[in-house]
Prior knowledge:
By secondary structure, the chain is α+β, with helices and mostly antiparallel strands. Helix content is 34%, strand content 16%. It contains seven helices and four strands, in the order E-H-E-E-H-H-H-E-H-H-H. Strands 2-3-1-4 form a four-stranded antiparallel β-sheet, with helices on both faces. The radius of gyration is 16 Å and the shape is globular.
Amino acid sequence: MTASQRGPRAAHLAQFNVASLRHPLDDPRMAPFVEMLAPLNAAADDTPGFVWRFAEEGAADATGLRPAGEDVIVNMSVWETREALWEFTYRSGHLEAMRRRREWFERHVEAHLVLWWVPAGHRPGVEEALERLADLRAHGPSPRAFTFASSFTAAEAAPYVRAAPPARPGEASRRDRAVAARGLR
């Protein structure tokens, strides 16, 4: 059991990121990225410390959802610890995708990744993730919304960890699907 899992206020780390597509996903120039999706998702799922990954209902990933704009794809997952997410992000095959990201995605001028602590068992929804990203963009890193470079512990974030009933693993809630369908920012 990790330190973040002990006690009545156990917490896990949620991450949400957005990426603005240079080309539609069915464009041949995006084929190398699309071909990486299933293997990278499988690798994440098998990584020690991985808890959950957001996916569109009936799909293997969330690339069909566009809650941040028609040309923006999203990724969201939950991890036991910051270290587990860091290991997957920067010390696995995922690093190769990051090295090639400029081939597929526009450069972001504002924050595109947000981290925040959630109660163990909670599966954040799209609306919650967009709120955290907006908070980071508006106010900079805080215990409520932060980045790898400006990280906070679960203890520091305890006042901001929301108690919420867990969603069914692997499914977007009806409300999150509605938000995604409307393309709310």
